[in-house]
Amino acid sequence: MTPNAASSSGPSRRSFLTSTAVATAAVAVGSPLLAACGGGGQEGRKEGTTSGKEAAKILPAFVASSVVTPDIPAKNGSAAGFTRAIPTDRLKTSVPRTLGSGGKLTVMSPFWGTPPNGDNPYYTAMNKAVGVDVTWQNQDGVTYDQKLGAVLASSEIPDVVVVPGWNLMGRIPSAVNAKFADLGPYLSGDKVKDYPNLAAVPTEAWQRGIFGGQLRGIPMPAPYVTDIAPLYRKDLFAKKGYAVPGSPAEFLAWAKEATDAKSKLWACDDMKWTAFNVFGVLSGGDKALWWNLEGDKLVNRIETEQYLEALEWTRKLYAAGVVHPDAVQGKAGGDAGNRFTAGEVLVYNQNISDWWGKTAEQRTQNADFEMAAFDYFGPDGGDPTLWAVQPANIFTFVSKKASEQQVKDFLALCNFCAAPYGTKEFMLTAYGVEGTDYTVEKGLPVKTQQGVNEVNGAYDYTGNPAPYIAYPDLPEVTRGMVEWQQRMGAFTKKSSFFGLTVTEPNRWSNLADDFEQLEDDVVRGRKKISDVQQAVSDWRGRGGDGLRDWYRKLLDDNGSAD
To answer: Keywords in UniProt for this one (predicted)?
Structure first.
């Protein structure tokens, strides 16, 4: 799992909003086994993937939005950046007429927290604006996989269902193919132009929405630049005169100097995920991205020297006593941020959205608090080799039993919610009803307590624009986050299965499940690098080589998405 997977808040383009924030980029967490696409196999499952010419027949045309111009254009796979709040009287319109028919839709979605009443002013205003009477079946996000499995196994499912990528395990992928509609007749090619905001969703995100050889999922787009950043206390670095380390050796030497356990100060928290990026290990979020064609051989990340080198360097940090004792004990990654803001650690790795989240949290408590993300370096201190993450990891589907009008109402809902920043539709979706859910203070929208409680989750999942970051309350953080993504994007490569949604055959789908625990044991000194090498050998014998042949055939038959 990525460091933020234990977080109690749910992933959403707006899940990190506080009273003064305007928007956030999507966050994809966890280690998903991703859904089925194309190929052959048992009914409803269809192991494999769809790419190349076959995908081109399915994918929507791309028409970039020109409604609002970002302050910082997207570059090298980054999000676009908006550093300023747009006054209400200058908001643009991206949905000039109501597309919904006034029909009804029931939507099941994960929700973290206490769901609001269904007749609240926010839901009422959204339904009126979209032209669709949506009834939300909000389910506990923590146990959503269990609820999802039960619902999809039943004969009756809601009209619309949100499926996070990390819940696509077990029988859920086959249920996706069996029970959700093909959206190709409504969206493929130029047909998507009937829904301009959806037409502006990047093609690589739509590629991820192909399940079972058909365009079934509305994707939540995300930047493909790694979302895990090494975050550091810029204020304390300046106070102590530290320079940001520029190589693994420099980092270890600095960490030994900076750690003062008697004063309850440690250089860092667990840095395993930073190590993977420093040493150029293939992306770890989606198991399809564990594979890459190197020369004529398909190689898995666990077979590489880079993987072992990253674990060994992280082990050295633990052995040197520079890692916070709570991390040594394996306490939840979400606590690392608290140790960081408390000044007990100077560096930790987390989703880059924490740069804004922690800054917004601390600015009312500690006026001197300042943090940033340092750039990744390579093993020798030169340029890093980074690997792209998937460009979408949350999907929304409509039932095969839905009528044609219900499908069109579903797309009307998705198109409205995919409105870009700076539009009236975005403002309603993100903030709700002015005067009830938010007020405007010093030019910035500020959520009321009612807005905090009600404008949270739900509509986030039914449509999203191209990736963006917009924190006008902290414009310097917005700029810092986007520019970091742009710099790191310049060193980012796409592996062989980037952008593809793949389901591994059941007999092999859990083959590598024990490696995360093994990694954690190795870096903490409980096991040795030789134990990893033995585990890799066992993995090959238990099916790893067979899985390699299966992936290679996918690549030979379908090609990559790029």
So the answer is: Lipoprotein, Signal, Transport
